[in-house]
UniProtKB/TrEMBL annotation:
It comes from Aquimarina aggregata. Binds 2 magnesium ions per subunit. This is DNA polymerase IV. Keywords: Cytoplasm, DNA damage, DNA repair, DNA replication, DNA-binding, DNA-directed DNA polymerase, Magnesium, Metal-binding, Mutator protein, Nucleotidyltransferase, Transferase. One of its GO terms (molecular function) is damaged DNA binding. It catalyses: DNA(n) + a 2'-deoxyribonucleoside 5'-triphosphate = DNA(n+1) + diphosphate. Monomer.
Length: 406
């Protein structure tokens, strides 16, 4: 029996979410991403594509190419909510679902042709998603993940495409080699130096030549160019880590700013853990200096999701890392080795009022936003852009928690 894989991709996802929230953005050039000079374009509407703007581009360059666009910083919490809505629709309808990213999904529909028709089913599912979420979505249908993904990109925007069994190679042949997953800018330049720009030329090459030029990845690229991909669908599973990073608009060595940033990150991520019913047992801190040298350190700890346990560990790791005394470009905090659980009182350190305090704080944050209540130590320039800045108080400042921790 031939497999049937469908790939769904929400079109310009972040932009589409913003347009749902503000209809005045419809049919206008919109760019979502970091709004500083060092920011990166996370999503760009199709109206900006004619100017050469694309995701992953430096925001400074995007402003030069399309100065009349509407620039939005975006809100990760909003996008997560819409992504979860689409995920729940798909999970309720398909037998096996893989969530490849916040806006991409693979589903295995093998065997459904005998009952309903895979293409018809996928079409109706696409209409259901658009109707219930309000978000435009495209899909590609074929025998494997690679061809389905390429078909989705060819179908966009807001459309669908089926590649019949046996026509995978013919479908891929006229396309640019850049359309094949795994072929980035560096690999594409190598192909160009070889005089190769389309998939058909790769299909005619001996696989041995591909491996001699690209190493072990050469065989995989050759297989995908020929429509061969046996990668299985990995059923949707919970994330194993949670992280946050901040790239400064201007490199800094201000220790107060740096510590404010990572404290705010540690506090916000701890709240995300508790909100998701998770505990962490591994803390990592990352620093990138102005010369782009990047260093990180991690430490295994007992399972916890409490700020007053995690923040000291983060600060300890930062103090260990920050040894070069150079200007710092980026800092980051990551909690990994996650497991399901809730914060429990430490018999030696904590009191019940500490747990009640976290419960009250989290209730306020859940209702009014991640940064509606915070420690005094996380206020200031270093905490700017950390967390969700949805202001529930109509212009009033957030609650500041000046709580002495042990």
């Amino acid at each position: 029996m031939n497999t049937t894989i469908v790939h769904f991709d929400l079109d310009t996802f972040f932009v589409s979410c913003e347009r749902l929230l503000d209809s005045r953005l419809n049919n206008k050039p919109v760019i979502v991403g970091g709004t500083g000079d060092r920011g990166v374009v996370s999503a760009a509407s199709y109206e900006t594509r004619a100017y050469g703007v694309h995701s992953g581009m430096p925001m400074k360059m995007a402003r030069q190419l399309c100065p009349n666009a509407i620039y939005i910083r975006g809100n990760a919490g909003t996008y997560t909510k819409f992504s979860k809505q689409v995920t729940e629709i798909l999970q309720s309808e398909v037998p096996v679902l893989e969530k490849a990213s916040v806006d991409e999904f693979y589903a295995d529909l093998t065997g459904m042709d005998r009952f309903f028709g895979c293409y018809k089913f996928a079409s109706e599912l696409r209409n259901t998603i658009t109707r219930e979420s309000g978000l435009p979505i495209s899909f590609g249908l074929s025998v494997n993940k690679t061809v389905s993904k390429v078909a989705t990109n060819e179908a966009k925007p807001n459309n669908q495409l089926k590649v019949d069994t046996g026509y995978e190679k013919a479908f891929l042949a006229p396309l640019s080699i850049k359309k094949i997953p795994m072929v980035g800018e560096k690999t594409y330049r190598t192909f160009c130096n070889m005089g190769i720009k389309n998939v058909h030329a790769v299909q005619q090459m001996p696989v041995e030549m591909m491996t001699s030029v690209f190493g072990k990845n050469g065989r995989m690229i050759w297989q995908r160019a020929n429509g061969i991909d046996h990668t299985p669908i990995v059923a949707y599973h919970e994330r194993k880590s949670i992280s946050n990073e901040r790239t400064y608009g201007q490199d800094t060595i201000d220790i107060t700013t740096l510590k404010t940033t990572i404290t705010a990150m540690a506090e916000n991520l701890a709240f995300q853990l508790r909100r998701g019913g998770k505990l962490t047992s591994c803390v990592t801190v990352k620093i990138r200096y102005s010369d782009f040298q990047t260093y990180s350190k991690q430490l295994k700890i007992p399972y916890t999701s409490a700020d007053h346990h995690l923040i000291p560990v983060v600060m300890q790791l930062f103090d260990t890392l920050f040894s070069r005394r150079l200007l710092i470009r980026l800092v980051g905090v990551r909690y990994s080795s996650l497991t399901t659980g809730t914060y429990q009182i430490n018999l030696f350190d904590d009191e019940k009022k500490t747990v009640n305090l976290y419960t009250a704080m989290d209730a306020i944050r859940t209702r009014y936003g991640d940064r509606s209540i915070m420690r005094a130590a996380t206020m200031g320039e270093g905490a700017r852009t950390i967390g969700n800045f949805t202001n529930p108080f109509n212009g009033e400042p957030p609650i500041v928690l000046a709580h002495r921790t042990q």
